[in-house]
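Hey, can you fold this one?
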Amino acid sequence: MDFSKFFQKVGVPSREIPKVIDSVNHSDFFDAFERGKVSEEEFRHEMSNHLRVSVTKDLFEMAWNAVLLRSFPGVEKVVSNLRSNMPVCLLTNSNSIHMRHMLENYSWFKGLHILASHELGLRKPETEIYERAVNTLNLTPEHILFVDDRSENVKGAKEVGLKSEECSSPHSNLVEILTKLKLL
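Sure. Predicted structure:
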């Protein structure tokens, strides 16, 4: 994700973007939105006030979704191969705006079992979100592989007993991990 794209599109001056990203990432209203505790409208309002900008709903959503990667080359094929042999679940820190966009635009999301922070009221790396995933999947932790791009999330999953791997590249590193574990 590249949050600077959002701030550029809503008119935050370039020199202020790093400071603004940090302030938003550590804000209660961003955390509440990712947990589903505030509505999209409340989040837009709070974010607009925080940034001192006025944007339409459509512009806000377009800018907010601009932070997402356009594609994940090769990942669709990897996920498809995995899904033919085992259950695949997506555990994500996400919000309703991003999830709607991803479900509409990333074909490999369709049919996936998705556990999203805004629906669970929890966020990675909190222990309870991994425990919820284990219970939802009805598997024991040692029978679940958790792959994430953030080391703190991998550490959190390991603490619950999940097999966990850090994946720095959505395709090449993922293939290496799955090949090493003899899952591909």
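The CA atoms of residues 6 and 64 lie 5 Å apart. Let me know if you want another pass with a different chain boundary.
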